[in-house]
Amino acid sequence: MASRARLFKEYKEVQRDRGQDSDIQLLCDETNIYRWTALIKGPTDTPYQEGVFQLAINVPEQYPLVPPQVRFVTKIFHPNVHFKTGEICLDILKTAWSPAWTLQSVCRAVIALLAHPEADSPLNCDCGNLLRSGDHRGYKSMALMYTRLAAATNV
Amino acid sequence: MNSEGGGASEEDRPRDDEILAFHHAIRAADAEKLEFVGDKEPLTVLAAEYEAGNPVFKAKVENLGQSYFAIRRARGDGNCFFRSFMFSYLEHILETKNEAEVRRVEKNIEQSKRALIELGYQEFTFEDFLSIFVEQLESALPGRETSVDIDQLVQRCRDRYISDYVVMFFRFVTSAEIRKRAEFFEPFIIGISNMSVQQFCKASVEPMGEESDHVHITALSDALGVPIRVVYLDRSVGADGKNTDVNHHDFIPSECSGVDIPPVVLLYRPGHYDILYTRKDEGRQNE
Predict the structure, then answer these.
(1) What is the 3-state secondary structure (H, E, C) of chain A?
(2) Which CATH number fits domain A2-151: 3.40.50.12280, 3.30.420.380, 3.40.50.150, 3.10.110.10?
(3) ipTM
(4) What digits encode the pLDDT tens for the residues B230-246?
(5) pLDDT (0 to 100) of residue B173
(6) What is an annotated GO biological process for this record, any one (chain B) (predicted)?
């Protein structure tokens, strides 16, 4: 199975780089290489910086020809993340996917999305509306509140 | 704003993986209508297609018959250029049994590999795709345990795993060539897409299903060192409004400047590529 071989390579790479990318911790399910968990640090100078967010990664059999399914397990207030399901609106997880991406670089892209919310393609309309109406203070305080409630590291 | 921070209208929306699954289902339904590459058919099937159609097309198809005698269709899934190229080139190797040619192309593949690494691609992200293509090249040559005949080649090019992996390898190679020679390609890319070279490669070259045009063809042809002819079947007529000669363009990499007719000949109709067979080869091929 090509996807399995590829995932083993990614697994080895993750073990080798352990500690280099301290913002991302990628963990493979011990019994199933198609299921991964990622812990990502909220980027600095954003309302997410105090938080660590858990992502659930489901890798389909046709990987890496098709993208992994990634969603937030930790509640987050962000225009491009569905507030209830944790689904992420990110082009590389859909039509712009290519096998040049890896689980690690996908996590980096998710962190970049946290730092650069795209208010024009919102999955969380309320959050998108705050940003589109220019209420950055409102957005920041909501996002910060949910970060403290759901993603605080010192709980 | 409701108390939960999410809008009510979002509830009815299908999830993205459901949309993707639906998208795949549509493609799968299409797949049953036509293989990745079809059977070799006489060019008369094309004439039948335009029997009741546009008179310019009809006249052009007739003219096409002077130089070409057969067509092999590719599935229209956005990868048709790469799939057509794959089959057409491997068939060329199978027929010419030209080992030196394979070695030459393998050297170019090595170059592409180095370019990808220099551009920052991790080797494990493309090596599986690369080795699948090299395997196909090797088994198109005679006298090996893995050697294939034309029927087996057709089967392989219809195999989803093999075909998709080779297409993806071509996409990596194409992207690397464009990015390596960004200055050369930039004006063409701006002309068709309004994107930067890097954006273009990320959005229109590397993802599966993204259609190809002259930028992709030039890049792949140059990178692998394989000349490609594209025959254009469209509604355009010459300056006098009557000329229904069929135009073609030959993409000839500099290392192949002496080539007369490229080994790969494709028919382009707006939005789609198929494989053409030249009359010159008619006697040699017996399918």
Answers:
(1) CHHHHHHHHHHHHHHHCCCCCCCEEEEECCCCCCEEEEEEECCCCCCCCCEEEEEEEECCCCCCCCCCEEEECCCCCCCCECCCCCEECCHHHCCCCCCCCCHHHHHHHHHHHHHCCCCCCCCCHHHHHHHHCCCHHHHHHHHHHHHHHHHECCC
(2) 3.10.110.10
(3) 0.90
(4) 999 988 887 777 788 88
(5) 98
(6) proteolysis
